[in-house]
Amino acid sequence: MGLVFQVDRTDAGGGRHGRLVLPHGVVETPVFMPVGTAASVKTVEQGVLEETGSDGVGAQIILANTYHLYLRPGHELIARMGGVHRFMSWERPMLTDSGGFQVFSLSSLRKVTPDGVEFRSHLDGSKHFFSPEHSMDVQIALGADVMMVFDECVEHPATYERTRDSMALTHAWAQRSKDHFETNKERVPWFEERGGKTQSLFGIVQGGMYADLRKESAERLVEMELPGYAIGGLAVGEPREVTREMIARTLEWLPKDKPRYVMGVGYPDEIEEYARMGVDMMDCVLPTRAGRHGLVFMREEAGGPVVRMNIKRKEYAEDARPIDESCGCMVCRRYSRAYLRHLFVSGEALGLTLNSVHNLAFYLDTMARVRGDLAG
Amino acid sequence: MGLVFQVDRTDAGGGRHGRLVLPHGVVETPVFMPVGTAASVKTVEQGVLEETGSDGVGAQIILANTYHLYLRPGHELIARMGGVHRFMSWERPMLTDSGGFQVFSLSSLRKVTPDGVEFRSHLDGSKHFFSPEHSMDVQIALGADVMMVFDECVEHPATYERTRDSMALTHAWAQRSKDHFETNKERVPWFEERGGKTQSLFGIVQGGMYADLRKESAERLVEMELPGYAIGGLAVGEPREVTREMIARTLEWLPKDKPRYVMGVGYPDEIEEYARMGVDMMDCVLPTRAGRHGLVFMREEAGGPVVRMNIKRKEYAEDARPIDESCGCMVCRRYSRAYLRHLFVSGEALGLTLNSVHNLAFYLDTMARVRGDLAG
Q: Where along the chain is the active site annotated (chains A, B) (predicted)?
């Protein structure tokens, strides 16, 4: 058994409050998942991540990237160390992506065949081959609670024909992913110590910006009876109305009793909007990446619109206020805008950490508030 | 009143256990002071610093560099923000150096006159002038509990004549530092809120590697009746036996009822050795700087010699042990060598933080153990 998903309540807008029970713990949904690319949520220590947010509850589940960990330190090394949880000392739930997105966005000289993708590492140019079977082997070795089918990510914009052909490949690869996972799922490093619990494999709906392809993709994946479904290939440059429309349409075709995950979105107001539409899981590098660029999220007043504050601006040089006066995170409880500006301007690494911790808290707090509303 | 210093016990070797009562708190001596160059102990959050070490007590007192804070964000800005404690949200004691050492080691185009030093900023080449009076004004604006007289740091090696002339300048500057401090010491930003308590100004014994000059310097400074004395101009490239000899000799000439501070040393075994000789205070960038270069300190067995471990070495790739199995710091309690190596090799910023936190804990633990021995 990989997971149990329970929806407690669904409101008129489709938003739902639920619980996802995974081998490493329980996740209250809707949930935002910080991204720990190379087994580290950049600049943030795991102990801090366990307490981030105004309620001190911290991140319930985090992501790690299969592509990055495959290249360095290698999935077999991580398996020998007991899996990615033990390797990075994170005992709460985790999710790995399939590696597909990074193969298509980071590596060079990709050659896609029906069998898989040949590519060169962005680190050293070395040649590698990823197939659905290989992605499964890597993700089983990493041992996250949730893993993802290997998919092709189509470029944006893409023609209808190109998108349709890519989607067909993604479906074939999803079936191969599932077949390989089913016959190997007992090989996860913690299988025995967790009493025979194992990982769960989610499908990924593709279909670009074409609603009929999204429908076909959802239907085809639902036939495969996977325990959860992601909506992939969004937030790739399309207008935000299109993202929302694709999500809204796809949600209609996905089973209501399974978790629904939108990959790689978005700004704080977007994650709130999608959660209220019925999305259960989201992940994004934005809180940490923006933090490292000196961009922090805040609201001028509680419940007001989200403001992106550039902490390096001169106007904050002597501003004794916290980033957000209504935020209860450890950064806002202790540090002023003036100090954060000084750290950033002076190139002090602590500034990147504090910006990232606040932004993560902002995302987690946003989701906690939405969960409160949806719980009724 | 700036400080009260009490020696509880002195052992046969001259090592002593004591307490230094400062406006922002009590410091048990001998003490190691982490360096927070630009109002940040590099890569380490203040809350972590308050708990670093196996006993969870954290750093009792930290340093900040006058030169760095003068250039950026500026001492007047920090004064307007309430002083450096409030600016960086560190409510425990602090010490600022005089800026002298950095002016001589970091800036360019220095021109020394009896009045002071003209120099160019290492940041933008802008021209500045530091005199003893100006260093005092800057340090009063910063508002650390302990500040240092402005001194000239002679290069190493230096001839007897050069060292003697430089020392004479340092003595004249020490007197001017004291005079200016005495007439301005009520201008510290927290003077009123701390009920009229103020800062303490320490002298700095110079004299290079010449014992007779060290003696003359100590005697001259003792005549000035300062509340504490530092030994400066060491660990500048001389053999370690010479450092030890200069410290041992100088300690003889310094009053036993005042705190004695050796600036800018050293390796963990050195700080232990000097503390056992009767040095009460030491600071060094080494734990954090080494950490950022992947060097961590450990002992193969409790009480054994200090080992410098290069965490990026291949042999640690699958090593599940903590850096130091007898260390109780947050890094050793949670993370393996394998994970720390992965972080460092992958360029993950968290690696620099964790290495630094462990090294700081190693230094603080070393000093806590020495204090325990000296307390008898």
A: 97 (proton acceptor), 283 (nucleophile)
